[in-house]
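Before relying on records like the one below, remember that each one covers exactly one chain. Contacts with other chains, cofactors or solvent are not represented anywhere in the record.
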Amino acid sequence: MTLRDLLTGIAMTIALLCTQQATAQIETLVMPGKVIEGHADVETDCDSCHQKFERQRQRVLCLVCHEDVGADIESQLGFHGRFESARDDRCASCHTDHEGREADIVNLDEQTFDHDFTDFSLQGGHAEVECTSCHAPDTRYREAPSDCYSCHEADNIHDPGLGTECAACHKPSDWKDIEFDHDTTGYELIGHHLEATCTACHEDKSFRSTPTTCYGCHAADDAHNGRSGTECEKCHNPTDWLDTSFNHARDTDFPLDGKHADLSCDDCHSSDPFSDQMQTTCVSCHAEDDNHKGHFGDKCETCHVTEDWPKIMFDHDVDTGHPLNGAHETIECEECHIEPIFEVELQSDCLSCHEQDDAHDGTQGPTCKDCHNEESWTDKVFFDHDLTRFPLLGKHADAECEGCHESHVFQDAPTDCIDCHRDEDPHEGRFSDRCASCHNPVDWLQWQFDHNAQTSFPLEGAHVAVACETCHRQPLSAQAGLGSNCGDCHRNDDIHDGEFGPDCGRCHSAESFRDVRSIQ
């Protein structure tokens, strides 16, 4: 490079510097007006906002000062970050300065402003509030807090320890409209718990000291008054408090069936049911209801069922060797089982039970059924008298038992006719006691006696029509000494006064006393 060239370059540089300074002075002289109050401190320093002869540089210089707006545009947040023209156009397109100290270069119309272009979309109740409720005077709009707690701290009814994330539970549509996943707390809400209000469990609204056990919340609702312990979930469930999940059949050795299923817990259990050592025998609960007074032991289930106490399932015909028939079907158990049933074994013969009722005093043996039946002790008595030593013939077959048997011993009944018919004896004892010699049981008056064959004194002639009493005036025993001579009977009738002896038959005949034979 020559000296000339060097001097020429220096001259041109001096000339250029002189031209730029002049231009700056010219721009200062032609400034359109005063800047706004916020820019007043840089009003004399035009380079803070303007790059001489490079208008496109003005946007860059704005963002140098307004770093927060620049950050919004860079991250596409906030109003300027969401508004497309703000991301590309010069700031002066919307915010013209040099309008004076009191000029409003923001030009924000609160009535038409679309809040969706901000980081805080107005939803629910927020859409109805006044701008000044969130945006304090003399503060920039962007400085308004966007978190719930900053605005609603005074409305917070919860323990401060719960945090400031109100949106975790509440929704802007309605502060009382709660949207919270309780499962995240480790205590899942199921059944009726889903219907409960928050304050029903969280009375102090702290949400931190709330008990998680059933009894912790429901102690006042405990119908057992603490008798059943505090582990309510052993029996109850949150779906329905009255629908107990406790299965007595599964969880105990005593299934509740029949009438037991209708009982309340307190009917059997004491004040502390989980500590009770309950006996499972019927009589342990029903001793006072035992109508048998302990006679039948403690195995009530042998006869009774839980569906209905009076309903007896014991089948005497099947379960014992003694079927109950006739009148036995309607008698009470205690009438036979006087002693404890499982201690004293009853005999099955009739006399074992009816010995005191035995009118025969045991003379007929223990087999009562030979004559009697179970339908009625006295009705339809069966007995074949022909199998005894005294068959019933003739009129005897129609006679009542009591006619001959004054007592029910029966064996003491006489077998001789005279023993029963002595009062009816028309002979008044003149003949022997052997009534059957003449009479028969078919008819007392149809008697048969062959004096000719059965005695040594044949009846002939007038003797045939003579009544027995005519000759037999005394008992036969007294007449045993009589002979066969006529005089034995007719001595008083002897007109000969015994001169011809006692053999009247030598002259007289039996046809007529007055008929005298001739003596040859």
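The chain has a mean pLDDT of 83.
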